[in-house]
Known about the structure:
The two termini are 43 Å apart. The strands form four sheets. A six-stranded mixed sheet has the order 7-8-9-3-10-11, sandwiched between helices. The protein contains nine helices and 21 strands. A hairpin with a 4-residue loop joins strand 5 (65-69) and strand 6 (74-75). The protein is an alpha+beta fold. It is 25% helix and 37% strand. The site of adenosine-5'-triphosphate has 12 residues, from strand 2 and helix 1. Adenosine-5'-triphosphate (ATP) is lined by residues 13, 16, 18, 36, 38-44, 198.
Amino acid sequence: MAEVRISSVTKKFGEVYAVNKFDAVIRDGEFVSILGPSGCGKTTMLRMIAGFEKATGGEIAIGDQIVSKAGNGIFVPPEKRHIGMVFQSYAVWPHMNVFDNVAYPLKIQKVPPEERKERTTKALALVHLEEYAARFPNQLSGGQQQRVALARALVAAPGLLLLDEPLSNLDAKLRESMRFEIKDLQKKLGLTVIYVTHDQAEAMAMSDRIIVMYKGVIQQVDVPTKIYEHPANSTVADFIGLVNFLDGEVKDGVVQLSQIGCSLPLAVNFTGPALVAVRPEHIEISKTSGTLRGKIVSKLYLGDSTDCRVAVGDTVLRIIDRGASFENYADGEEVYLSFGHVMAFPK
Length: 347
Ligand code: ATP
């Protein structure tokens, strides 16, 4: 059982709150990402779960054991938390071959040599590195080195796997295939995974739930679709995906967008000034009909879509069109626009 319960955990470095009152329950067998921009505190939070960093306040429990309780002197060292950890930098030992790197945690635990060999071989098979056991890290690609780190994290059969930006040193293609591999491993082994990343596409693709952090504080905890389609605030809307922001005024179920001279029906539970957000793929371009008029400023061909800039008065909207607009529309052409899913946040 590797449920992780984090209650009001805080970490201060001097006067800076790197993490401020972090509350979350990561369920057994769940894949949860901590997502946020650089410096938001996600690595610090992960390191506190691992035991590499001591919390200033709050409590962390893994399974039935409280591993950290600030002020009460409870602090279980990392090697006793029964976790596996993978770092961005791989952190494999250059002087050991692949087999010895992966076997190392078992050696520390004084597992007998025969069993050690069997479990190491199994862990290498899990990450498809059986053939590479005798090689040294400098004879491996980045992706292979990261697989060594993954096998080493899994060899002691931890219930909880912590990953800190494990794919960010890999090229785009390898990163995508490793996403599938990690996800498959998690399912196959029934692992609880906490995955730190600043890459929202990665978090979306892999996670059961995402914890979005900003400046040390949790902004939203939810499933990927909710985070994308119903962000809790404008910070989350801005960080996740692309968004056009407009000033608005909400009254009687309608939002007035004076900047672009139109009003739209909108179901929100507040009235007054609002920051209105529309994703580029939720605005439709048409030659014949729509809610308002605009003029194509520029367009970029992206293969599966066209990335357009369309001016409505002085406001330029970004629109991603999955139709044939690259061929269909000319720069400077007058078009109609209609809005799909519109979000609004009180100002
Ligand atoms: P990145 O994606 O860039 O690694 P992050 O979200 O993981 O960023 P953290 O590394 O957790 O962010 O850092 C959070 C904040 O705490 C930052 O402002 C950072 O400068 C500060 N910080 C982290 N470690 C220390 C430290 N040992 N001493 C002082 N400040 C620190």
